[in-house]
Structure formats: C-alpha cells, structure tokens
Amino acid sequence: MRVVLAEDGVLLREGLAGLLERFGFTVVASVSDATELLRAAAEHSPDLVVTDIRMPPTFTDDGLRAAVQLRRDNPGLAVVALSQYVQHGYAAELLDSGGGLGVGYLLKDRVVDVEDFISALRRVVAGGTVIDPQVVRRLLNRQNNPITRLSQREREVLALVAEGHSNAAIAKVLVLSEASINKHIGNILAKLDLSPTDDSNRRVLAVLTYLRERFPELP
C-alpha cells in the first residue's frame, strides 16, 4: 500500500514513516505542510494519505482542509486524519466525504497499541471507517450546541460582547451601524433560545454560552 504522510514535526514524521515501512506500507512521500501534501498526492496517486491537522502554512487546520479537498477531488482516496485534537469546522465534512467510506479520524494521544493502529489504517484502505469514540462525542456535542446556529457575523458580534464591548463600540470595530448591531444581538438572543421574558440578564447568558463553546472545560 502506497502512502503519502503529512506531519510537520520531523521526529514524529520520521518515526511514523519507519513504522509504516516496518509493517509493509510503502511511504512514497513524506511532507511537512498542506501545500506539499496536495502536490505529493497528485504526483504519487497513493492508496492512503495519513495527515496531521495543524501544520504550515497557518498552523491551524491546514492538514484537515487539504484532506477534505483531496476527498472532494477523489472520494475513493483513503484518508486518515491523525491529530492531537478535534477540529470541528472540517471534521464532519471529512467524515461525510465519499459516503463515509475509506476515512478515519484518530487522536494521537489515544493510540496506545501499534498493531491496532496499523489495523485501523488497513481497514480504512479497504473502505472501512475508523473514528475515535472521543471524536464522535465531541462532534455530537458540537451539533447540540446552540452556538452553531449563529452566522459568522453573529459569532463575531457575540465574541466582542464577551470581551465587554458596548453596542456602540462593536459597531465601530465592525464598521456597522449601531442599529445593525442591535439587530444582530436580537437575532443572537433568539437563536440561543433566550426568552425576552427571562428575568436573567440575557446578554450575560449569551456570553456564558459562547465561552462554554470556546472553552468546554468551563462548568
């Protein structure tokens, strides 16, 4: 099985390459950023891509976005995302791609058995789906989070509210009228199911909802 491996950490990349070779995989390319990953996949037509998520050029979700693009261009390409965390934005799109077949999402710190890991890769290449249960739980929690109902602009407004800005200050930051900000905040409160008859401070409750989504360890 021909593999393209993408990992920006040189020691981990070399270690994974050696491990894969030891178990009969052929690593046809070993790259360190998302741009090289797309180029290597186009050049080598691998059976499997194993990629980290956070890598250059932006060190955010470049690897995951590249994986989504590869699956979009070639739904039959087996792809395994191997990461330290769950990136919500594109994780669901990756797992939905290609009918959910031949795809995996594993968390690095939960891989405790080498042979199980290799078995998971082979299942993905054979058309199976391998997803860490913790990834599933986090994605389900995300889907149930009312913050996901907000538009991008509404999330920007709520983020500035959370920073303590007044409506007038938010209007200046976003170069919008104060009336527009008032409308956005009204929409936010409605989408978060914060009833206008609630005696509590709805603005504070909206901020708490936002912070819990950003920092899930909060109570």
TrEMBL record:
<keyword id="KW-0805">Transcription regulation</keyword>
<dbReference type="GO" id="GO:0003677">
    <property type="term" value="F:DNA binding"/>
</dbReference>
<keyword id="KW-0804">Transcription</keyword>
<dbReference type="GO" id="GO:0000160">
    <property type="term" value="P:phosphorelay signal transduction system"/>
</dbReference>
<dbReference type="InterPro" id="IPR058245">
    <property type="entry name" value="NreC/VraR/RcsB-like_REC"/>
</dbReference>
<dbReference type="InterPro" id="IPR011006">
    <property type="entry name" value="CheY-like_superfamily"/>
</dbReference>
<keyword id="KW-0597">Phosphoprotein</keyword>
<feature type="domain" description="HTH luxR-type">
    <location>
        <begin position="143"/>
        <end position="214"/>
    </location>
</feature>
<feature type="modified residue" description="4-aspartylphosphate">
    <location>
        <position position="52"/>
    </location>
</feature>
<dbReference type="InterPro" id="IPR000792">
    <property type="entry name" value="Tscrpt_reg_LuxR_C"/>
</dbReference>
<dbReference type="InterPro" id="IPR039420">
    <property type="entry name" value="WalR-like"/>
</dbReference>
<dbReference type="Pfam" id="PF00072">
    <property type="entry name" value="Response_reg"/>
</dbReference>
<dbReference type="Pfam" id="PF00196">
    <property type="entry name" value="GerE"/>
</dbReference>
<keyword id="KW-0238">DNA-binding</keyword>
<dbReference type="InterPro" id="IPR001789">
    <property type="entry name" value="Sig_transdc_resp-reg_receiver"/>
</dbReference>
<dbReference type="GO" id="GO:0006355">
    <property type="term" value="P:regulation of DNA-templated transcription"/>
</dbReference>
<feature type="domain" description="Response regulatory">
    <location>
        <begin position="2"/>
        <end position="123"/>
    </location>
</feature>
<protein>
    <submittedName>
        <fullName>DNA-binding response regulator</fullName>
    </submittedName>
</protein>
